[in-house]
Amino acid sequence: MSTTIAKDQPGEGRLEHAQSDHPPIARAKVGVVLVNLGTPDNTDYGSMRRYLSEFLSDQRVVDYARWKWQPILQLIVLTRRPFLSGQAYKSIWNTEKDESPLLTITRAQTEKFAAQMQSLYGDEVVVDFCMRYGNPSTESVLTRLMENGCERILFFPLYPQYGSPTTATANDQAFRALMKMKWQPAIRTVPAYFEHPGYLRALATSVTDVYEPLSERPSKLVASYHGVPERFLHEGDPYHCQCQKTTRLLREKLGWEKGSIDTAFQSKFGPEKWLGPATVDHVAELARQGHKHIAVISPAFTADCVETLEEIEDEIRESFIAAGGETFTYIPCLNDRDDHIEALVDIANNELGGWVLPVSSTA
Ligand SMILES: C=CC1=C(C)c2cc3[nH]c(cc4nc(cc5[nH]c(cc1n2)c(C)c5CCC(=O)O)C(CCC(=O)O)=C4C)c(C)c3C=C
Ligand SMILES: [Fe+2]
Ligand SMILES: [Fe+2]
């Protein structure tokens, strides 16, 4: 079969078949995919069980030997947990759209991000989002982008701190999808961005925005990160260090004194020792120490979800009040704040270097 080089196309050097009966080949574009964790399709037992089964069967999340873990998961954990978690999701469900807040917020982030990318790159860049678990699946989105001519894809896990149960498994899933393709796109993955000045600026501004109208300034800010087993740290996962550093950088950005922000970890799962202190205990301890007014921020979550809207706003708040605390202020995640989206766009631009040029610079 003879081939020619399509020189008049932006992806110059791309091979194009000269045969007239060959199916048309779409103009080469760059895809950018925002990736989040995933969420159940509904709050009923079946939907919750499906979601939790996929999530908790992931060896990046629970890394026990399959033959030991699967019977415990399928016969014990997945009998009760779908009910309990289903209740938690029900209490925060977006009833208007009939979906979880994580999905609503990820879509809103993607729309704003896409609008900014469009104004920078025109139609050369196509933006979409996918989930690691549930829908829209990673495979379906990567396949669709490839079918739409995206021969290069920037895969952007929305986790500021690298974690093997989050960033690594998201990337694994992308490469699993690529394994099935005859024609794979070139792929780049976006690294952790907890040190990015735009991310830190957005976090700091989200704190001052909430503090400004408060009549009583909180005497302590608690940065509550999703926990992982402590063992992961000893096995080389940098998540713990990146969380500690995020707290320090946030404090420096705010210009606050040492000791004004504490780091804690939430959402413990299973009997193993997890990173500590546990947020739920730490806020009670703060109340016992005499802190009457505290605030909580969750820098590892880019979108509010069941872990923030239910666990922090409900369980962790109650723990503080029950121990004698008076006001508990939750600082929402960065969600689709403009300064957050600007930071994400800047991060993506840095990673797109050499792949695509802004429209203004090619004119
Ligand atoms: C062993 C279990 C888990 C590990 C390790 C873990 C790490 C981890 N998770 C996030 C972010 C999110 N987790 C969310 C929900 C969630 N997480 C676990 C378990 C582990 N997570 C479960 C079982 C659940 C479901 C809810 C429940 O049953 O309690 C979510 C919210 C999703 C939503 O739909 O709202 C997020 C986001 C991080 C950042 C992390 C470690 C790096
Ligand atoms: Fe989690
Ligand atoms: Fe939780």
The tally of strands reads: 10
Order of helices and strands: EEEHHHEHEHEHEHHEHEHEHH
In the CATH scheme, what's the topology name of the domain at 197-331? Answer: Rossmann fold
Helix content class? 40-55%
**Helix-strand category:** alpha/beta
The CATH architecture assignment of the domain at 197-331 turns out to be 3-Layer(aba) Sandwich
Choose one word for the global shape.
globular
Which regions contain 5 or more consecutive residues with pLDDT less than 50?
1-16
Main location: cytoplasm
Family: Belongs to the ferrochelatase family.
Pfam family, one: Ferrochelatase
Enzyme class: lyase
Description:
Residues 1-21 are annotated as: Disordered. Fe(2+) binds at residues 226, 307. Belongs to the ferrochelatase family. Pathway: Porphyrin-containing compound metabolism; protoheme biosynthesis; protoheme from protoporphyrin-IX: step 1/1. With 363 residues, this protein is of the alpha/beta class. Among the domains are: 40-92, no CATH class; 197-331, Rossmann fold (3-Layer(aba) Sandwich). It is built from twelve helices and ten strands. It has helices spanning 45-56, 66-92, 101-121, 138-147, 164-179, 197-211, 230-234, 239-254, 279-288, 306-322, 338-351, 359-362; strands at residues 3-5, 15-17, 29-38, 125-133, 150-157, 186-189, 220-226, 261-266, 293-297, 327-331. The strands form three sheets. A four-stranded parallel sheet has the order 4-3-5-6, with helices on both faces. It has a four-stranded parallel sheet with strand order 8-7-9-10, sandwiched between helices. Strands 1-2 form a two-stranded antiparallel ribbon. β5 (150-157), α5 and β6 (186-189) form a beta-alpha-beta unit. The longest helix has 27 residues, at 66-92. The radius of gyration is 22 Å and the shape is globular.
